[in-house]
Known about the structure:
Elements: H1 2-13, H2 16-19, E1 25-29, E2 35-38, H3 40-48, H4 62-75, H5 80-98, E3 103-109, E4 118-125, E5 134-140, H6 142-176, H7 178-198, H8 202-213, H9 224-228, H10 235-242, H11 244-252, H12 261-267, H13 288-303, H14 314-324, H15 331-356
Antiparallel strand pairs: 1-2, 1-5, 3-4, 4-5
Amino acid sequence: MLTDHRAVTNDTVLNRAAVDALSAHVALCDKHGVILGVNAAWRQFADDNGGGLPDYGIGLNYLRVLEAAVEWARVNGATKTEIAVTHGVRVGFSDVLSGRLPRFQIEYRCDAPGTPRWFLLTISRVTDHPFASVLVAHENTTAIKDAEAAQHEHQRVMAGEFSSVIEAIARLIEQRDPYTAGHQRGSVGWCNFIADEIGFDDDRRQGLLLGAGIHDIGKIAVPAEILTRPGRLSTLEMEMIRGHAAAGYDVLRDIAFPWRIADMVHQHHENFDGSGYPLGLAGEEICIEARIIAVADMFDAMTSHRPYRAAHTVGDAIDELRRMSGTRYDPEVVTAMLRVIEREMSDAMSVTKGSQG
Length: 357
């Protein structure tokens, strides 16, 4: 009998003392999807929010309830997101009930008047229970969402402050050495394009671009006349220039950036095969941002005019990328850069043809 079964479930099967202590709104359903029992949090939520199901839904088929909810959402002008979530829950419950899935989870928004609220719905198979087959739990995750939003805002503010610090450093470099500053800006542009190809998220992209913007900061320790001198440098002068990566790291290592800025600066002359400097790192030992900067650095340096030489052609730079892929440069980054160059050249040709037409 449903009545007897329901009474046993609510008082015994649900283990009321334990389940009622949960903050999540919990219901147990049988193998047909019928709600056998609910906990105190489920009942309280229904009472507080005008729940329309008789007896808190006990005795009703939850799958039918969800199907009705989908239809109600469509008829009553719910948003596409609300309809999609409701439909997704119905499909998820059906999949768990039939055994196609052991578990289904979805996060959804269910606002109170004037108050945003978020919930995590978990639908799980129950295998060691005499009556129940599926457990449904709605957990209020609003506090977690609020904390995440506050943390994100704090990170945004901190990122802005760190960005200001890096921009100040970049201006200092520019006043001392305009050529290095211009090269760093060019490298930033190519890094941005490569980040698109690789699929960096916004936060990682920001860190990459900031690191690229000061990757040669260590050159402030090198006399300007050495940096701009035409012709062959002495062994000592070459060592001074090669020391700029470590010098830059020394400047930045004690600043608590939310990104690996110091490592980017330190490692941007490491080679993929381990033959670079100053640490002799190889492959994945080199942070991905430094591997990207290395490619952008080379391409911008080769294709830019310097006081001591004319710019190389884009074709020369492409040949160098291909020749050094897998030895000096990460092959995946090189592939991404080649796609960027091809796209940029194609766009430039389209603009040229349009202006001529």
